[in-house]
Write a structure and sequence with these properties.
Length: 142
């Protein structure tokens, strides 16, 4: 799985082959490409440029969550926000790391990209609770 994933990412080149036009992902050489190995589909379809943009979007989201954590007044809200940031960071790190062969394959989904309803609902609920806690931060110390 990891060998085919590396081949798929490498065959994408700098700008990629186009959405769903890669040979490794279209002909199912990469198993579980919609769930665990979704990053190799992005890497082959959009290349280094698209993968970098995806990583920048994830980095922007993580920095935004950390910014929200720093402006919280209550200790619980701050700890919760840092917990959300760390859960998302480790999911991103492990999924991309296992796709490129840096960490063992353990089946962690890439947030908001991998196919599966449970992970999508879980990450969305985590962010919704964080947004609600951030909206109530002014009322904590009144």
């Amino acid at each position: 799985n990891v060998k085919q994933s590396k081949i798929a990412i490498g065959s994408g080149g700098f700008i990629g082959k186009g959405l769903l036009k890669g040979t490794q992902t279209r002909y199912d050489f990469v198993p579980e490409q919609r769930t665990d190995f979704i990053f190799c589909t992005v890497g082959e379809g959009f290349g280094f440029l698209g993968s970098s943009i995806l990583l920048m979007l994830y980095l922007f989201m993580l920095f935004r969550i950390i910014f929200i954590a720093e402006r919280q007044r209550s200790t619980f809200s701050r700890c919760y926000a840092y917990g959300v940031a760390s859960v998302l960071f480790f999911h991103i790190l492990i999924n991309i790391g296992m796709t490129v062969g840096l960490v063992p394959v353990i089946g962690i989904p890439l947030p908001y990209m991998s196919y599966g309803g449970t992970a999508l609902i879980t990450f969305t609920v985590l962010l919704f609770i964080l947004i609600r806690l951030d909206a109530d931060r002014q009322m904590v110390l009144r």
